Amino acid sequence: MGKSSSRKGIKNKSTILKEEGLERMFLDHDCNPIERKILMAKEAEKEAESAKKPSEKLAWMQLAASIWKDLAGYMYPKLKAIEHRGDASSIIKVSFSNPDDL
After folding, report:
1. Which residues have a Cβ under 8 Å from the Cβ of 44 and sit 6 or more positions away?
2. Which 3-state string (H, E, C) describes 4-70?
3. Looking at residues 27-46, what average pLDDT do you find?
4. 70 in a domain, yes or no?
5. Predicted local distance difference test score (pLDDT) of residue 5
6. From CA 23, how far away is CA 1, in angstroms rounded?
7. Cα separation, 48 vs 56, whole angstroms
8. Is 102 inside a domain boundary?
9. Average pLDDT value for residue range 59-71
10. How far apart are CA 35 and CA 75, in angstroms?
11. What is the domain count for the chain?
12. Which of 20, 38, 31 is nearest to 74 (CA)?
C-alpha cells in the first residue's frame, strides 16, 4: 500500500482557504448561521404555541425539534459506535465508582 499524502486530522490548504472564505463571507454579511438557527427554532416554538390545529402545532414542534437536534451536534458530538464481541453467555461484571473518591 502507498503512503497517504496527508495526515489524518490535518487540513489541507484548499480546505483552510474555503473555511476562511466562508467565515469572511458570514462576517461581511453580519450573519452567524448558528445564531440564525437558534432564532429559527425559537420562532418555530412560538408558532407551535399559537397554532390552532393540532396538525399545525405538530408540524411546528417537529421543525423546532429538528433544528435543536441539529444544533445539539455542535455542543455534543455523536459518539463513535462500538461493536461488542465475545461469548454472549459469559457474565460481564460492571461496577461504578464515585469520581470524587478517585
Report:
1. 60, 61, 63, 64, 67
2. CCCCCCCCCHHHHHHHHHHHHHHHHCCCCHHHHHHHHHHHHHHHHHHCCCHHHHHHHHHHHHHHHHH
3. 89
4. yes
5. 58
6. 37
7. 7
8. no
9. 95
10. 14
11. 1
12. 38
> Which of 65 and 14 is assigned the larger pLDDT?
65
| Angle at 61 (CA atoms; ends 57, 63), nearest 5 degrees | 120
Residue 95, in any domain of the structure: no
Which region holds residue 96: left if phi is over 0, alpha if psi is between -120 and 50, else beta? Answer: beta
What whole-number distance in Å separates Cα of residue 52 and Cα of residue 50?
6
Q: Note the pLDDT of residue 25.
A: 77
Is the Cβ–Cβ distance between 12 and 6 less than 8 Å?
yes
Average pLDDT over residues 12-24: 76
Share of the chain above pLDDT 70, in %: 90
pLDDT at 83 over 60: yes
Q: Which domain holds residue 57?
A: 33-76
What was the pLDDT predicted at 22? 75
